[in-house]
Amino acid sequence: MKPVFLEEMGQQVEEALRRFLPPVDSLRPWLEESMRYSTFAPGKRIRPVLLLEVNRVLGGGLERALPAACALEMVHTFSLVHDDLPGMDDDDLRRGQATCHKVYGEGMAILAGDGLLVGAFLTLIRHLEGTDRVIRCQQELGEATMRLIRGQAADIRWSGSLPSSEKLEAIHRDKTACLLRCACRMGALVAGGSNEDVEQFGRYGEALGLAFQIVDDLLDLSGDRDSLGKTAGKDEKSQKITAPAVYGVEASRNRARELVGQAKTFVAGYAESRGLKQLAEYCLERSG
Fold first, then answer.
1. pLDDT per residue as tens digits for the range 89-123
2. Number of domains observed in the structure of the chain
C-alpha cells in the first residue's frame, strides 16, 4: 500500500522546487520551460521523500532539509532527460507524457539536463544552511552523480552483450541504487546524524535501490504503458542486461523480497522507522 506521507511530502517537494528552480525568462523562456516541463511531470518523488523521511526519523526539521531534497530531485530528473535521448535509451514517453526532447528538441533537452544538474548544486550552495553540511552534501551528491553516469555508460556499452550477474550488479548499483543511497545519507547529514547513522541509512538506501531496480526490470516485462508511464518492453527489445535476463522472473522476485527485508533490518533500531519500512514494502509492491 502506498504510504500516505509519500504524497504529502511529495507535494512539499513540488512546492519547494517551484521556488528553487530558476524563473522563466520572458525573453528567452526555452531553457527554463524545458527544465520545468520535465521536473513537474507526474512522479512519485521517492528519492527526495526518502531524504526527508530519514531527516525526520533523526529529528531534523522539514524546511532545513527541503533544499537538499530538491537538489537530489533535480539530479534525478537530469538523468531521466538524458537517458531518454536518442543516443541513449531513445524513448518518447516518460512519467506519462512526451519526453523532453520530443517536445523541445534534442539540443534543448540536453541543455535542460545540464541546467538541472548545475541547478542542483547551486540549490545546495544558495539555500542549504551550514557550511559543513553544504560541503558534505555536495560531496555525497557529486559522488552519486558520477556513479549514476558511470552506470548509464555501462548500460549503453553492455546492451546486447552476454548477460552476467557481475554486469547486472554493477549497472544496478551505479545506475539506480547509488541515488537512493545518496538520498538516505544526505537525509542523515542534513539532520545532523552521526557517521554511524549516515552509514546505516546508506545501507538501507542501497538495499532498497537494488530491490527497486529489480522491480523496474520485472515491470518492464509485465507492465503496460499506462501504469508505467513509459514504454513497456523496451529492455528486452534493446537487449538490456536485466534481472529477469540473468536470474529469471521468479528468482528476481525472490531477490527483490530479500533485499527489502534487508533494508527494513538496517533501520529496525530506529524508533521512528515505520515509514521507511512502509516505503520499502511499497517499492516492492508497486505497479508503476
1. 889 998 889 999 999 999 999 999 999 999 999 99
2. 1
